[in-house]
Amino acid sequence: MKRIFIALALLAGIQLADAQVKSPADAKKAVESAEAAAQNPKKAEKVATWLKLASTYMDAYNAPAGSAWVGASKQELQLLMGNDKPVSVENAVLNGEPCTKEIYSNKEMYFNGNGQLILINVTSPVFPDALANAKDAYVKATAVDVKATKTKDISAGLDMISKKYYEEGMNSYMLGDLKKASTLFEKAADAAATAPLSKVDSTSLYNAGYTAWASQDYERARIFFEKCLGVDYYYEGGEVFAKLADVYAKLEKKEESKKVLEAGFTKFPESQSILIGLINYYLENNEDPEKLFELIDHAKKNEPNNASLYYVEGNIYKQLGKTEEAVKAYYSCSKINPEYEFGYIGAGILYYELALEFQDKAQNEFDDKKYMALVAEFEKALENAYEPFEKAFNVSKDESIRINIAEYLKNICYRFREKDPKYEAGFEKYSTIVKEGRIN
User: Fold this and answer.
1) How far apart are alpha carbons 334 and 397 in whole angstroms?
2) Has residue 276 got a pLDDT over 90?
3) Residue 427: which H helix or E strand, with range?
4) Are 63 and 21 in contact (CB under 8 A)?
5) pTM of the shown model
6) N or C: which end of the chain has fewer CB within 10 A?
7) What residue ranges do the domains of the chain occupy?
8) Phi and psi at residue 46, in whole multiples of 5°?
């Protein structure tokens, strides 16, 4: 849940504070009056009748929240909400973070540690299907608006319904109800696709698929991820390909999984999730992973000056346990682009992780001779990591990356600080950078 802002595609939420929000009782009466008008044959022929009905349903939908809006402080809400007081208050956890939950007769309001409202969960709506009824009313309005004079108003209404469904989907996700979240994201996409708005809401399609995948409803997830690819929506770094391939694998559709991974790799060769998915596929199904190198070579021909392709090649060798080939590929990055730091970083991390493996083995070894041999391998790998990390530190122009590299270099220099003056000086230099969080 802590990864919500990474895992889900987000839209900027639109929160409206309206001092004229109707009370639930008044909102219900307004809907009943508008429904009666819509049942009158003559009035039912007028687009204004259906627009009014849609509007009253939207008012009814908003009524339980009252004047509260996400982002408001407790102090602001105390002034606006008047006598609307919580019946109880309790501690809660939302999206992995502690918060305070105020429980009202018709809603729950969650506040973060700064006293800011972060979620409104309506528990007693005026009408359980207010958004769906409002959408139906807009569809009716479209049908009677033969001259299309209200297309703009109807589209705006449908767009607002889509946003409200999206907000509810996010709320359900944060509350841990993934299945409900998936349904709400689907409704958001459906509302956006409704004429005359007729918009493809790829973000909601992806979220509907992601939440279905996260709740292990793989057949449902397949539908939405396929829809994403159908509208050329791939999400960050082609993540849709990786997710769909995983879904196919879970559904025992191995060939489909392979095809979607290869298609994704062609478009996004730098995607780690797609790359790892391909490697795992080839290894698990006893297929030749050399196919990956054929794909990389094809990409190199299309982009001969793309240093990142050699970085990807290094990652493939690393995953296959071919250390020498991986390091060679990583170092090839600098031949293509001397300012590309990630090749050096890849080599440094490879050696560093290798050193940690030897360290773990040494800690579990009781034979002194074998123990000393493992320690020697550990130190060799750690020293090998120093050079590429130092080169990456010197080449990179990104301060945050350099600070992260400094953390590795500090640890390496600490180990060898008594062995060589350069490591002692390095330890002082990189320790200061890590401590201060900046490059002097």
Assistant:
1) 15
2) no
3) helix 421-436
4) yes
5) 0.72
6) C
7) 341-436
8) -100, 135
Indicate the residue type of 180.
K
pLDDT at position 6 over 50: no
Q: How many residues does the chain have?
A: 440
* Alpha-carbon distances, residue 393 vs 30, 42, 131, 309, 389 (angstroms): 66, 76, 54, 21, 6
Q: How many CB atoms lie within 10 A of CB 358?
A: 19
Comparing 5-9, 186-190, 236-240, which segment has the lowest mean pLDDT? 5-9
Mean pLDDT calculated for residue range 103-112: 95
Highest mean pLDDT pick, 18-27, 181-190, 284-293 = 181-190
Question: How far apart (Å, rounded) are the C-alpha atoms in residues 347 and 323?
Answer: 9
Q: 303 with 309: CB under 8 angstroms?
A: yes
pLDDT at 17: 41
Is the sign of the CA dihedral 360, 361, 366, 368 positive or negative? negative
- Cα torsion through 248, 249, 251, 255, rounded to 10: 70
Q: What is the pLDDT of residue 284?
A: 78
Tell whether omega for the bond before 196 is within 30 degrees of 0, i.e. cis. yes
Residue type, 306: N
pLDDT for residue 362 is more than 60: yes
